[in-house]
Every structure is written in C-alpha cells, then in structure tokens.
Design brief:
Length: 450
C-alpha cells in the first residue's frame, strides 16, 4: 500500500506529549468536510483540520522496540501554510521525511514546540510539547468548486518500549489508536497469535503478515497485537502450489474456494462516498465520491452507472489543486465506438461517466472528486408516509445524509449517527470487509415541537 519514499533529512527527537492531548490534536472532527473558518488577519490562529488519515506501522527487529510509521493525511485548513503532527509521549522519534503525495516531492519540515503550534493552527497545544511542522507546498483555498486538500506522507521511526516489547517467546504491539484506519505489519518470520479487534489478516508480497483495522467508532481504542517467531513451510517448499494448476482441471473437480483471490486491504482503500438525499418524491440524491489514482499512465476514471439509476449533472475536479476536469457521459454503442473497455458487456442501457485527466506520472498521484445526481425510483422513494432507501455499498467508507425535515426510524446496518448544523441526520457506514453491505433506511417527516 505505502511506497517507501527516498531518503529525507533525519533528526533524532525525544517527545514529551501527553497522549490524551495527542488524541485531541490529531483527530479531525468526525464527518469533517474540510471547511473551516479562517480570519483574513494572519495574526489570528487558523484552526488546523484534516481528513483521510491512515497509518501503517512496520514493526522492526523486536529487541530494538522500534517501528516505522507511514502516516498519510490530507491537510484541509483553509489558508493554512503548515501542518503540525504531534510527537507521542514516551517515544524516541526519528523523522525520515515529509512528502507531497501529489508530486512525490520532499517537503521542508522542522521540529517545534507547542508555542509555535499555538500560533499556527493548534491553539490548545501545550508549549512544552513537540511537533513536526511541515511547510505545505501550496495554499489550501476554497475558491475551487469544493475542498482543496494537500495530501501528505509523514515518514518517521519510533522507539517505544511501552508500545512494542518482547516477553518470553512473544512480541507485543499495544497502542491506543485514534486514527480510524490502521495497518500493523509483523517482522519477517513471525506469525500472528492474537489481535483484540476484528481485523483483516493479509500476507504481503515479501512474506510478512499484516493486520488491518478500521475503527468504526468515534473514540480511540487500545489495539493489541501479539506474534511469535515461526518457520513457514510454504516459504521453504519447492513443490507446485496447488491453485496454480486449478485452471487446467475439469470444471467438476475445480476448487470452489477462491484460491487465486487477492485480498484487498479495506483500511488502505482511498475511495469514499457521500450521498445527499433529496426529497423522496424526486427519487434523486446528489452524491460525491473521492478516489486516488496512483497507477502510472492512467488518464481516466470510468464510472459505470448502476442499472436502474440514471446520472445527471456530472462534474469532477482535482482535490489537490481545484482544477476542473473534462467529463463525458456515454451511452450504449458510444462506449464501444470510443474503444473504451469497462470490464463487462456493453448493452444499449449501459451508461458510463468518463472523467479525463493528464496521465499520472511515476511516483505521483491524483485525488479526484466526482459529483453527480442520481435518479433511482427503484431504490429511493416515498412508501406511504415513509422515506425508503435500499442500496448496497461496496466502498469502505460511506455517508448518507437524510433530506431536511426527515427523522430516521430504521437502519438495518449499524452506523454512527449525528445531526449536522442544518438539522439533517448523517449516517456513517464502515464496511471493513470485501464485498457489499445492503443498507436499508426508513425515515418519517419530522414535526417540530413548539
């Protein structure tokens, strides 16, 4: 998931930050859209905001108590010039570099105390604590269609005996995780013994075992992983792997299991989607979905409209810069005439939205936001006096916003729920496994009490 960047400048740090304040400082407000209020007067502190945080912990040699951290985050502070990343209390920290995910370039950074952070986005920072202060490569502005973000990778190594230690034949990684999306990678030659929260287990290309976790709640959790050294027989065997020949077997004797299935890491997925339901009589919902393209040479995004739905008013832009992108809607034979492969059979009813952009260059990436209005009378409608929504979600992060004046009565899939400043109910669904979740919602009109 995380490509190790080139070497950056290195500096040894000793951190002294209280963890309770750490969680307060590093967590963006749940459901944050990236918008903040900022004063034109630069002497007034601008509250730092962020989104899309993801942390990968690579456990190094157990007797060293060291682990490397790759922290991905999108800075969203309007007018912000810096991003502050706190250094956790009790850890010896080495900064390997800070990088711009869009360009792949190394950014300037320094280690500062809390007084500096107070003046530039974290007014509650304690003056004696330490922070990595990264200089942003461009200004975050809101004169674009929507948010403009700066995507950062902070690469650092911690030594922390309280978080990573050995006991007899076991290694333990135990850490309070405030970031919602996390991955812990065991050292080479170790097998997983236990993990205390439901997690994916994925073997990486180099043979290391990783555990991947999405926290669906609003509070930090104490995440604990234990492992022990082991010799994996498959790594030492020269025998043919059975599934390699499965395709040559008669259909009746082929394995029913998904022997060649590449397990996707849900926590590392960068796509999320937000649905704004219009009044149910219209059968319409306005939505945006974000995704990051990292593959060199790719110059388009293809969105096949779900059967039964119709898309209208599509638009797209780069979240990194605010640049508007060319968008086309193609129907049926138009798709074949343009020579576009969509991975499925094209029929007269097939509807495709194509977003075009400059091809991604090596070591760079683009994050794109796509807006559309969908009409789907089969899945969103007024059923008597009830709003009724029935739709499957395949992405790992999904938000549904009810229309104004409606009160939620039923949700078949667990969600975190809040009410926004306009009085609309927001439901946040986390899908922490491959496949889809079938979201069924019902709501009734709200009659406000006098």
């Amino acid at each position: 998931m995380v490509a190790t960047p080139g070497a950056g400048k290195t500096q040894e740090l000793h951190s002294m930050i209280n963890f309770r304040q750490l969680i307060t400082l590093i967590l963006a407000v749940f459901f944050v859209t990236g918008q903040t209020t900022a004063a034109d007067d630069q002497s007034t502190p601008i509250l730092q905001t962020q989104r899309d945080s993801y942390t990968r912990y690579e456990l190094l040699t157990p007797d060293s108590s060291r682990f490397r951290i790759y922290y991905d985050v999108s800075a969203t502070t309007k007018g912000g010039r810096y991003y502050y990343n706190p250094i956790r209390e009790g850890s010896e920290s080495q900064v390997n570099g800070v990088f711009d995910r869009m360009s792949g370039e190394t950014l300037d950074w320094e280690v500062v105390d809390g007084k500096d952070a107070q003046q530039n986005g974290l007014p509650d920072a304690d003056p004696k604590y330490r922070f990595i202060k990264a200089t942003l490569p461009r200004t975050i502005a809101f004169d674009s269609p929507d948010d403009v973000q700066v995507r950062l990778l902070i690469d650092k190594t911690y030594k922390d005996q309280a978080s990573y230690f050995t006991s007899e034949n076991l290694i333990t990684f135990k850490r309070a995780l405030g970031i919602k999306r996390n991955q812990v990678v065991l050292p080479a030659g170790y097998e997983l013994v236990s993990v205390n929260y439901p997690s994916q287990v994925i073997r990486e290309a180099d043979g290391r075992i990783s555990v991947s976790f999405i926290n669906p709640g609003a509070a930090a959790v104490e995440y604990k992983v234990t492992a022990r050294p082991v010799r994996f027989a498959a790594a030492e065997s020269t025998a043919t792997i059975p599934q390699a020949a499965a395709g040559n077997l008669p259909a009746a004797t082929r394995p029913k299991a998904r022997v060649d299935y590449a397990i996707p890491e849900q926590a590392g997925r960068t796509r999320d989607i937000v649905y704004y339901l219009q009044q149910p009589e219209t059968h319409q919902f306005r939505l945006y979905h974000d995704y990051t393209e990292t593959t060199e040479g790719v110059d388009r995004y293809l969105n096949v409209v779900r059967p039964g739905s119709r898309a209208s008013n599509p638009s797209a832009y780069l979240l990194d810069t605010g640049e508007s992108l060319k968008v086309e809607t193609l129907l049926g034979s138009e798709i074949n005439e343009r020579g576009i492969e969509i991975g499925e059979q094209v029929t007269d009813q097939t509807e495709l939205v194509v977003i075009w952009f400059d091809a991604v260059k090596e070591g760079r990436s683009k994050r794109i936001r796509i807006w559309e209005t969908y009409t789907d009378p089969g899945r969103y409608f007024l059923n008597g006096d009830q709003l009724f929504w029935d739709r499957s979600f395949g992405r790992s992060q999904n938000t549904v916003v009810l229309p104004p004046g409606w009160s939620l009565t039923d949700s078949a899939i667990p969600a975190t729920i809040r009410m926004d400043d306009q009085g609309r109910t927001e439901l946040r669904f986390i899908n922490d496994r491959p496949g889809v979740i079938d979201v069924l919602l019902r709501a009734e009109r709200r009659i406000e009490k006098p």
